[in-house]
Design brief:
Blueprint: H1 3-35, H2 40-65, H3 70-90, H4 92-107, E1 115-118, E2 125-132, E3 136-141, E4 146-150, H5 151-156, E5 159-163
Antiparallel strand pairs: 1-2, 1-5, 2-3, 3-4
Helix pairs in contact: 1-2
Length: about 160
Amino acid sequence: MEPLQLKLIQSALVLVGMVILMILIKGTLRRLGNRYKFQKDRTLFTVKVINIGLYTAAAITLLFIWGVDQNELVLFLSSFVAILGIALFAQWSMLSNVTASILLFVSHPAKVGDTISILDKDYPLTGKIKDIGAFFVSIETEEKEIITIPNSLLFQKMIKVESQ
């Protein structure tokens, strides 16, 4: 068998394996979410994070199959992480929003679908949480307006959860 054919077969196996793993993990997480009454949005977010990890692992595996030198790959990845770190440090508010989104997801009492009041003397707000993204929380007011609030700001304010 020629080396090109072998690389194509290995690449196809990696991609098929990734798709099978994604399907199995998604089904398992949905069953666990239903069994333990996890919120569907949190289960979907977890599936997305795991899928990103699987895509990354598959891409690295494909790079090795196609002959990328490990030293060159490590050099590229370390350079990329250094540049990303500098960019995030320069945009500290973006990094704090991402960190706040993780904390909101894991430990905050308000979840998607809850009605909350933000207890702020300058800009009080009451509405239903529609989405918690990586950078913003979307809240729908009683007037059907969609207000987006940076995660770090929501994390710092006093919140009253009115309904769950």
